[in-house]
Write a structure and sequence with these properties.
The protein is an all-alpha fold. It contains 13 helices and two strands. It has one domain.
């Protein structure tokens, strides 16, 4: 492959990746269109239409693969179900947070999730951390503690989002499937529950899909595409550029979400928020630079999980 072809592929990878994170960052604008619909109902439709969207794409590409995907070994099927439950809980919390005016907290959750993934890797996979990553974890923890002590409330939205997404990331590491297959399997695992919930609502005339307005129905249906498209763009980008490069772009989404929370939705961003987020931002800079080898090498610290 020529150098020019490699360069073009790298540029395409960057555009795919940036586009994916940008779409994720602007997702609160979409969920705000559905703020009159309860978060659990939005979640159910998101699961169902994501399942339908991904199934359609897979059938177009290779319909023979569908049965292969659904006949995975039992251990993998358990992991698929776990992934489905975790991402559903994560989606629900995020939708609820956006439509309950906790967008800033939601952005904090996705800022600290990469650091929580590292800590879970230490506790569960017994990996070692270098001192830069330990410093980053301490700074991020300090940021969360400051906002907790100042307002007397734990930022549970941020912690739930970070915790569920981190556990989901670890489960995905075990599952080892591509983005489209993963989303299809995960939504397949929880789609029966989502369908049952929607049918009960509609039968009791409590649902919003058939009884409110055409735009609301359209936006509920669009939840599938708006969920799948960033994942597919991300998958294309990740194939073309290094994982360390992807790491530089992962903070685009929470940054856009934070700006939306402050300047579009009018949430309060106080001095305490600035100090708290400032510590988290410094932690992320250290974490990212350490990941790509741009900091002096540090010996792994003896921070391992207990046997």
């Amino acid at each position: 492959m020529s150098l020019n072809a490699v360069t073009q592929q790298g540029r395409a990878g960057v555009w795919y990746t940036v586009s994916a994170y940008t779409l994720w960052g602007f997702l609160p604008l979409y969920w705000k269109l559905l703020e009159t619909v309860p978060a659990l109902e939005v979640l159910a439709h998101r699961v169902l239409w994501s399942f339908g969207f991904t199934l359609t794409l897979i059938l177009i590409r290779d319909r023979n693969k569908v049965w292969q995907m659904l006949t995975l070994p039992r251990r993998k099927l358990v992991t698929v179900f776990l992934c489905g439950v975790l991402i559903s809980f994560n989606w629900y919390t995020y939708i609820w947070a956006v439509n309950s005016n906790h967008v800033i907290q939601a952005s904090m959750g996705y800022y600290i999730s990469p650091l929580m993934v590292v800590l879970l890797s230490v506790l569960i996979l017994k990996e070692s951390l270098d001192r830069w990553k330990i410093t980053a974890a301490v700074l991020a923890t300090a940021g969360v503690l400051i906002i907790t002590l100042q307002y007397g409330q734990v930022p549970w939205v941020a912690l739930v989002l970070a915790g569920t997404f981190s556990l989901y990331s670890l489960a995905k590491k075990v599952l080892q499937v591509n983005a489209l297959t993963g989303l299809f399997l995960e939504t397949t695992a929880v789609a029966p529950l989502a369908l049952l919930y929607v049918l009960v609502l509609e039968r009791g005339q409590l649902g919003h899909f058939t009884s409110v307005s055409v735009p609301i129905s359209f936006f509920l249906m669009g939840a599938g595409a708006i969920t799948a498209m960033p994942l597919l763009l991300f998958a294309q980008g990740a194939q073309r550029i290094r994982l360390s490069t992807v790491g530089f772009f992962q903070y685009i989404a929470p940054s856009i979400t934070l700006l939306l929370g402050v300047f579009v939705f009018g949430e309060v961003f106080s001095t305490t928020h600035l100090i708290s987020f400032g510590l988290i931002w410094v932690a992320l800079v250290l974490f990212t630079l350490s990941n790509v080898g741009m900091l002096p090498l540090a010996e792994p610290a003896k921070m391992k999980a207990r046997p």
